[in-house]
Design brief:
heterotrimer, A alpha/beta (343), B mainly alpha (316), C alpha/beta (352), B: 316 residues, mainly alpha, 2 domains, 13 helices, 79% helix, C: 352 residues, Rossmann fold, six-stranded mixed β-sheet, 31% helix, binds adenosine-5'-triphosphate, binds iron/sulfur cluster, binds magnesium ion
C-alpha cells in the first residue's frame, strides 16, 4: 500500500481563552484533541460531527491555518511545518473552501474581480487570459458567465457558495478541504457539484477532506468516514460499514437524526435524541466525551478515556472509541436505530 | 474592563516618549546656535551663556535629552520670549480656553452629527436625506477659516447678533451669557467639518446595519420604524461612529489653531500661531508636545468607549 | 439524556377554510426595462393548524413570497399583483401602521439565518420583550414572566438567567430556539419558518423541527415551512407546494407527493435524493442545467430547458396549474403530465 496523501498523527489544536477584555489567557479550548487519520491519495474522507466538534479546526490545521499544539501532519510525504516555510508551497498544494461564502467574498468586488484576483495573486494568468479562465471557472461550477459582473449581494445563497468553490479551484491544488461546501445548495445543484468534485477528483487525482453535517451527501462522496465529537474521534472506518452498522452510540444518534425523504418512514421510525448541550471544550471531562449524553454511560465512562479499537468479527479498519460497544444490549439498541435510519 | 484600561494605558507610555523625543529634536534641527534659537536674537550675551550652561548645551546630545526630560518632569518647558513667561505658564493659562472650545465643538459635532445622520437614515432617498447630503458636501468642501470669516461677516458685522472675536470668562462682568455668545461662532466654525463627517458616517453606518437579518427579525415582530432605527440600528452603528468621532477629535485640535486665530480666541492655537510667526521655539515645542499628548489621550478614551459599546470586544 | 422517542403516526389536520392565503402574488425588483419579476403568480393556502411545506431551488422565490406577504420586501422590491389574505383580510392594501400590527401577532416569521437574526447589541430578554412592552401594552414584569415561559417552552434551560445573555453567548441551536420563542410570543395565527434549520447540525435540526411541529399542534398555528430539504418536509408537512421559477408547479398531500410525484421537476428531485445512497463510484444523475434566472425568463414552461419530457408546446405556452385527474387534490403545472397514470395506480406504493 502506498503512503497516504495526508496523514494526521495525534493532532491537537488549542485556542487560548482570553478573559477580562483582551490579552490575559484564562484557559484553553481543546478544539481538537489527539486526532489521527489518513487520507489516501485521490480519495475522500468525510468528516462529520456536530457544531463545535472540531471539524473545521481539523481542516484548518491540515492546511496550516490553525496552530498545532501537538502531533504531526504530513502532506504528500512532506511535513506541514516544512511546507509552511517554503513560500507559497502550501497554498498551491492545498486549498480550503470555507463554510461561509458571505464572509469570504469581498462585497465590494464583482465575482469576476474576485476570481481574477486569485489568478493574478498566484500568477496563474493575467489580463485577457485571466478573463477567459474566469469564464471557464464559472462554467465549471455551473454559473452563467455573465454573473462575473455581479456583486455577491446580488446572488442567491447557492450562487455565492459556488463562487467560493470556483475560487479554490482556480489555484488547481492537489488537496482541498471542503468545509460544508454543498450544505446550503439545492438538491439539483448539490448533485451537480458533487459530480463536478468527483470528476475533478478522477481527472486530476484530487484528494478531499469533505467536512459536513449533511450525512446523506457525505455518504455518497466519501470513501471513508471520520466521526468527531468534542474534539475527539468517536468512530472512523469505511463508509459502508459506518452507515450500515455504526459501532458508537453517538454515530448512531447522528444517523438517526437525519431526516429520511419518505413521509411514511420518517414519521414512524424510532429516534435517538441527544438532549444535553454539547461538551464544554474549555473544560474537558475525564473519560468519554460523550458521557453526558450517552444512554449507556457507566462509571468507567466517567473515569477512563476509551481508545479507538475495532470490534471482533467486524471489519478491522472500522474503529470506535466506546467502552461498551461490544455489549449485546448496546448492539441491539443501536441496530434497532440503524434500521430506521437506513431505510 | 479594568485590566483592558490598564493595558491600553501601558501602551501609551512609549508613544509619549516618542513625542518628547520628537519635540526635543525639533530644537536640534533648527539651524544656528540653539541658544540663539531659544532666546531669540535680541538676547544679551550674558543670558546666552547662562542658558548654555543651564541647558547643558556643551554636553553630549543624549545628556541634553535627559536634561530636557528631567525639566519636563518638573513641568519646565523653557521660557517663551514672545510672552516673557515660562512656556508652562503660557500653555496652562490657555489650555483651559482651548479645551473649552474643543469640547464645545466636539459635543456639538457629535450630537448634531449623529442626530442629523440618524434623521436622514430614517427616510433614505427622501428630500431631507438629499438636503443633508448637500449640507455635508458644503461643509466638507469649505475651509474652516473661510467659514469663520463668513460667519463673522454675516452674524457679527452684518446682523450684529454675536461678538466676532475674543473670549469672555463666565466670571466676568457680563456673566455666562456673554461667555456663551462669544463661543457661538468659533464653536460652529470648528465643529462644522467634523459635524458633516460624523453625520455622513452615522447615516451610512445605520443604512449598512438596516439591511441586517436581525433588523428584519425586529420588523417581522411588528416593531415600528422609529424604534428600529433608534434602538436596533443606531447602537449597532455606534462602534463605527465612535471611531470617526475619535478621529475628528484629533482634527479638531489642529483645526483649533486656525479657528482661534480667526476669532482671536486666546487658546494654545493662537499662542502657537504667534510663536510660529516670531520663531519662539520653546513655545512651539511646548505647544506641539501638549497637543500630541492630548491626541494620544483622546485616542485612549475612544478605545475604551469603543469597547464599552461593543459587547463582543468587552468579553473577547 | 439520550433517549428513544416513540414513533408518531402520520397525522393530517385538514381544514377547508384557509386561515392564510396567497393569491396570484407577483413580486418584482426595479422599474420599467430593468424590472425583474422574481415571483410570478404564486398561490398558496394553509388552513388552521395545518403545515404546508414549500420546497424549491435557491432563488425560486420562496423567501421573497413570504417577505412580500409580511410587507417586508427590501428597498426596490414591490408587489406587482395578487392578494395576501389573512382570515379573509387583504394585507396588500393595508397602511404601514396596520401592517405593523399584523406582524408578530397575525403572521410571524422565523427567518432564514439563525445566527445573524438576533440583534448582537441587545440581550435576549430585551429583544424578546420589546414588542410585548411597546406594542402589546404589557408591564415589564409581565413581559419578563412571559419571556421565561416562552424560553421554557422552546426548551432553553435556565431561562431566567438566559434573558441577560447576549446572542453571541448562545450556541446556534439555542439562538434558533430563542428566535422561535420570539416568533411565537404574540400567538401568531400563521408561523412562517424560512429554512429554520439550514444553519444547524442534524441532531439540533431534528430537535428544532420537532419543536416547531409540536408548537404548531399545541398552539393551533398554521405553519408554512420553507426548505430545500425534502427530508425535512417529509417529517413535518401535511401538504407540500413545489416552487419553480417563481411559480407553484405542483401541490399535493405529502404522502402523495413523495409516493407519486407528477411534475417532471419533482420527480427528478426525488430521484436525485435516492441516488445519494449509491456507491461513490456511481455518478449522480442530477437535474441538468442551471436554475432559472428571473432576469432571463424562459418562454413557455420555465422547466423546459432541463426537462426530459419536453415537447414543442412546452416551449410555446406556459402550462396552467391544474388537476384534471385527482379531483383538484393534486394540481400540476405541466402540459405533458407524464406520470399521471402512475400517480393513480401507485397511489398506495412507497417512494422507494
Ligand atoms: N479561533 C478560535 N479561537 C478560539 N476558539 C475557537 C477558535 N476556532 C474555533 N474555536 C473553538 O473550537 C471548537 C471547535 O470549533 P470548530 O469550528 O472546529 O467546530 P466545527 O466542528 O467546525 O463546528 P461547525 O459545524 O459549527 O462548523 C469550538 O468550541 C470553537 O468555539
Ligand atoms: N434585493 C434584491 N434585489 C434584486 N433581486 C433580488 C433581491 N433579493 C432577491 N432577489 C432575487 O429574487 C429571487 C428570489 O429570491 P428568494 O430569496 O426568494 O429565493 P429563495 O427561494 O428564498 O432562495 P434560497 O433558497 O436561496 O433562500 C432570486 O433570483 C434573487 O436573486
Ligand atoms: S464510552 Fe461510555 S459514555 Fe462513551 S459512548 Fe461508550 S458507553 Fe457511552
Ligand atoms: S410542461 Fe413540458 S417542459 Fe414543462 S415540465 Fe411539463 S413536460 Fe417538462
Ligand atoms: Mg465548521
Ligand atoms: Mg430564501
Amino acid at each position: 500500500m502506498s503512503a497516504p496523501a495526508i496523514q494526521l498523527k495525534d493532532v491537537s489544536v488549542r485556542f487560548p481563552i482570553r478573559k477580562g477584555i483582551l490579552r490575559r489567557v484564562a484557559g484553553e479550548v481543546h478544539a481538537v484533541d489527539s486526532v489521527s487519520f489518513d487520507i489516501a491519495e485521490g480519495e475522500t474522507v468525510g468528516l462529520v460531527g456536530e457544531s463545535g466538534s472540531g471539524k473545521s479546526t481539523t481542516g484548518r490545521a491540515l492546511i496550516g491555518l490553525a496552530p498545532l499544539a501537538g502531533g504531526t501532519v504530513e502532506c504528500f510525504g512532506r511535513d506541514l511545518r516544512a511546507l509552511r516555510q517554503a513560500h507559497g508551497a502550501l497554498p498551491r498544494m492545498s486549498q480550503i473552501v470555507f463554510q461561509d461564502p458571505y464572509a469570504s467574498l469581498n462585497p465590494r468586488m464583482t465575482i469576476g474581480e474576485t476570481l481574477k484576483e486569485v489568478l493574478e495573486v498566484h500568477e496563474l494568468a493575467k489580463g485577457h487570459d485571466a478573463d477567459q479562465r474566469v469564464g471557464r471557472l464559472l462554467d465549471d461550477v455551473g454559473l452563467r458567465r455573465d454573473l462575473a459582473e455581479r456583486y455577491p449581494h446580488a446572488l442567491s445563497g447557492g450562487q455565492r457558495q459556488r463562487v467560493a468553490i470556483a475560487r479554490a479551484l482556480a489555484i488547481e491544488p492537489k488537496f482541498i478541504v471542503l468545509d460544508e461546501v454543498v450544505s446550503a445548495l439545492d438538491v439539483s445543484i448539490q448533485g451537480q457539484i458533487v459530480n463536478l468534485l468527483q470528476d475533478l477528483q478522477q481527472d486530476r487525482g484530487l484528494t478531499y477532506l469533505f467536512i459536513t453535517h449533511d450525512l446523506s451527501i457525505v455518504r455518497h462522496v466519501s470513501h471513508s468516514i471520520v466521526v468527531m465529537y468534542g474534539g475527539q474521534i468517536m468512530e472512523k472506518g469505511p463508509r459502508k460499514s459506518i452507515f450500515s452498522a455504526p459501532l458508537h452510540p453517538y454515530t448512531s444518534a447522528l444517523l438517526s437524526a437525519v431526516p429520511v425523504p419518505n413521509p411514511r418512514i420518517e414519521r414512524m421510525r424510532p429516534r435517538i435524541d441527544v438532549r444535553s448541550e454539547p461538551p464544554d471544550p474549555s473544560a474537558p471531562l475525564p473519560g468519554c466525551r460523550f458521557q453526558k449524553s450517552c444512554l449507556f454511560a457507566t462509571e468507567i465512562c466517567r473515569t477512563s478515556r476509551p481508545q479507538l479499537r475495532s470490534m471482533t468479527g467486524r471489519d478491522p479498519d472500522h474503529l470506535a472509541a466506546c467502552h461498551h460497544m461490544q455489549e449485546p444490549h448496546v448492539r441491539e439498541a443501536l441496530s434497532r436505530a440503524a434500521q430506521g435510519a437506513v431505510s | 474592563m479594568i485590566s483592558f484600561i490598564l493595558n491600553r494605558a501601558l501602551q501609551i507610555i512609549p508613544v509619549i516618549i516618542g513625542v518628547t523625543l520628537a519635540t526635543f529634536l525639533l530644537a536640534q534641527i533648527i539651524p544656528g546656535d540653539p541658544a540663539d534659537v531659544l532666546l531669540g536674537s535680541m538676547a544679551s550675551e550674558e543670558a546666552r551663556q547662562q542658558l548654555r550652561l543651564s541647558l547643558g548645551l556643551n554636553e553630549p546630545i543624549y545628556v541634553q535629552y535627559a536634561i530636557y526630560l528631567k525639566n519636563l518632569l518638573h513641568g519646565d518647558l523653557g521660557q517663551s520670549f514672545t510672552f516673557a513667561q515660562p512656556v508652562t505658564q503660557v500653555i496652562v493659562e490657555r489650555l483651559f480656553n482651548t479645551s473649552l472650545l474643543a469640547i464645545a465643538a466636539i459635543i456639538l459635532a457629535s450630537v448634531a452629527g449623529v442626530a442629523a445622520g440618524t434623521w436622514a437614515a430614517l427616510k433614505p432617498g427622501s428630500l431631507r436625506d438629499q438636503g443633508l447630503s448637500v449640507v455635508v458636501l458644503f461643509f466638507n468642501s469649505m475651509p474652516s477659516f473661510w467659514l469663520g470669516l463668513v460667519l463673522i461677516l454675516t452674524f457679527g458685522l452684518h446682523l450684529r447678533l454675536l461678538p466676532v472675536g475674543g473670549m469672555q470668562g463666565a466670571t466676568g462682568s457680563s456673566g455666562i451669557g456673554s461667555m456663551v455668545a462669544h463661543m457661538v461662532l468659533p464653536t460652529i466654525t470648528l465643529a462644522a467639518w467634523s459635524l458633516a463627517v460624523i453625520a455622513r458616517m452615522t447615516r451610512s453606518a445605520i443604512l449598512d446595519v438596516i439591511n441586517s437579518d436581525y433588523i428584519r427579525t425586529a420588523r417581522s415582530r411588528g416593531v415600528g420604524e422609529a424604534r428600529i432605527v433608534l434602538r436596533h440600528a443606531l447602537p449597532n452603528a455606534m462602534p463605527s461612529v465612535i471611531t470617526v468621532i475619535g478621529m475628528q477629535m484629533g482634527f479638531l485640535l489642529s483645526g483649533a489653531v486656525l479657528t482661534e486665530t480667526v476669532f482671536s480666541w486666546p487658546g494654545i492655537g493662537l499662542a502657537m500661531f504667534q510663536a510660529i510667526s516670531t520663531r519662539d521655539i520653546p513655545l512651539i515645542q511646548g505647544g506641539i508636545l501638549v497637543l500630541a499628548v492630548a491626541f494620544v489621550l483622546i485616542n485612549f478614551a475612544v478605545d475604551i468607549l469603543y469597547a464599552y459599546f461593543n459587547p463582543k470586544v468587552k468579553l473577547a | 439524556m439520550m433517549m428513544f422517542t416513540k414513533p408518531h403516526p402520520a397525522q393530517t389536520i385538514r381544514s377547508s377554510d384557509a386561515v392564510f392565503e396567497v393569491k396570484d402574488l407577483g413580486v418584482a425588483y426595479g422599474r420599467d426595462a430593468a424590472s425583474v419579476q422574481v415571483v410570478n403568480d404564486v398561490s398558496l393556502s394553509v388552513g388552521r393548524g395545518e403545515a404546508l411545506g414549500v420546497v424549491g431551488e435557491s432563488g425560486c422565490g420562496k423567501s421573497q413570497t413570504m417577505l412580500a406577504a409580511l410587507g417586508l420586501l427590501p428597498r426596490g422590491g414591490r408587489i406587482t399583483s395578487g392578494q395576501v389574505l389573512l382570515e379573509g383580510r387583504n394585507l396588500v392594501d393595508l397602511s404601514p401602521r396596520e401592517m405593523r400590527a399584523v406582524r408578530g401577532s397575525g403572521i410571524a416569521l422565523i427567518s432564514q439565518d439563525a445566527l445573524t437574526s438576533l440583534n448582537p447589541a441587545m440581550t435576549i430578554g430585551t429583544q424578546m420583550a420589546e414588542p410585548m412592552i411597546h406594542y402589546g401594552g404589557m408591564s415589564r414584569s409581565a413581559a419578563r414572566t412571559r419571556c421565561i415561559e416562552l424560553l421554557d417552552l422552546v426548551g432553553i434551560p435556565g431561562a431566567a438567567t438566559r434573558l441577560a445573555s447576549y446572542p453571541h453567548e448562545l450556541s446556534g441551536g439555542m439562538r434558533q430556539r430563542a428566535l422561535i420563542a420570539m416568533a411565537i410570543s404574540a400567538n401568531p395565527k400563521v408561523l412562517i419558518a424560512d429554512e429554520p434549520t439550514t444553519a444547524l447540525d442534524v441532531t439540533t435540526q431534528s430537535q428544532i423541527l420537532r419543536l416547531i411541529d409540536s408548537l404548531r399542534k399545541e398552539l393551533g398555528m398554521a405553519l408554512i415551512l420553507i426548505t430545500h430539504d425534502l427530508g425535512v418536509v417529509a417529517g413535518v408537512a401535511d401538504r407540500v407546494a413545489v416552487l419553480y421559477a417563481g411559480r407553484v408547479v405542483e401541490t399535493a398531500e405529502t404522502e402523495t407527493l413523495f409516493a407519486s410525484p407528477r411534475h417532471p421537476y419533482t420527480k427528478a428531485l426525488l430521484d436525485t435524493i435516492s441516488q445519494l445512497e449509491d456507491e461513490v463510484s456511481e455518478r449522480l444523475n442530477p437535474i441538468p442545467g442551471l436554475p432559472p434566472d428571473p432576469r432571463n425568463p424562459v418562454q413557455g414552461c420555465p422547466f423546459n430547458p432541463r426537462c426530459d419530457y419536453v415537447r414543442d408546446v412546452c416551449r410555446a405556452e406556459l402550462p396552467a396549474l391544474a388537476d384534471s385527474v385527482e379531483g383538484g387534490r393534486h394540481p400540476v403545472r405541466c402540459h405533458v403530465d407524464p406520470f399521471v397514470g402512475l400517480s393513480l395506480t401507485m397511489a398506495s406504493g412507497g417512494a422507494r
